Amino acid sequence: DQQVKQNSPSLSVQEGRISILNCDYTNSMFDYFLWYKKYPAEGPTFLISISSIKDKNEDGRFTVFLNKSAKHLSLHIVPSQPGDSAVYFCAAHERNTPLVFGKGTRLSVIA
Amino acid sequence: DTEVTQTPKHLVMGMTNKKSLKCEQHMGHRAMYWYKQKAKKPPELMFVYSYEKLSINESVPSRFSPECPNSSLLNLHLHALQPEDSALYLCASSRQTSYSRSNQPQHFGDGTRLSIL
Description:
The complex is a heterodimer of chains A (111) and B (117). Chain A has 111 residues and is mainly beta. Chain A is built from no helices and eleven strands. In chain A, 0% of the residues lie in helices and 54% in strands. In chain A, the strands form two sheets. In chain A, strands 2, 4, 5, 9, 10 and 11 form a six-stranded mixed beta sheet that branches. A five-stranded antiparallel beta sheet of chain A has the order 1-3-8-7-6, with no helix packed on it. In chain B, strands 2, 4, 5, 6, 9, 10 and 11 form a seven-stranded mixed beta sheet that branches. A four-stranded antiparallel beta sheet of chain B has the order 1-3-8-7, with no helix packed on it. In chain B, a hairpin with a 6-residue loop joins strand 4 and strand 5. Chains A and B meet through strand 4 and strand 5 of A and strand 10 of B.
């Protein structure tokens, strides 16, 4: 049973436009959500997070939105750059339990 | 540059070999993790160490044996592995495992790409 779902395996966006990556979860006890970016031959790199007491967190070009009622999380990247091309993993956990990862979405930013 | 260092980057071993994967962090983190990642799949948790003690073992076969000699080091000893154990092995660390209200993301190393012949 997948608790964290990334239903789009891939996404292509033109350089300069907005990239929106989506994530849905089923466990209403999750209280901390993270996005990781992964390049080939490297480990996942922490990008941005949000706790369940917030609905938005922004860091530069990256914004994460949390809709608790819909159990939905999204990552907005604007403007998108070719260097953003990577696999993006959504992850979540509830207190004192391990991280649960989604299957990832491959973002391709086309110049 | 990652603050979690894993060695070696690549390892090829036979099914009868014994080898070890090493992980080091100097961020003062007290929680360390081993994950296994197969191609096009998310990382799967194997072990969690908290304050140098094993706190979670996700039903990992005994041919994988973790060790935490001190708060900065985490090893994964491998013996009699099977071809299906070929994967990317990722180490991660975080300030602690209590996942308190503060922001405590896990930081990953670049992994060891393991191939079992």
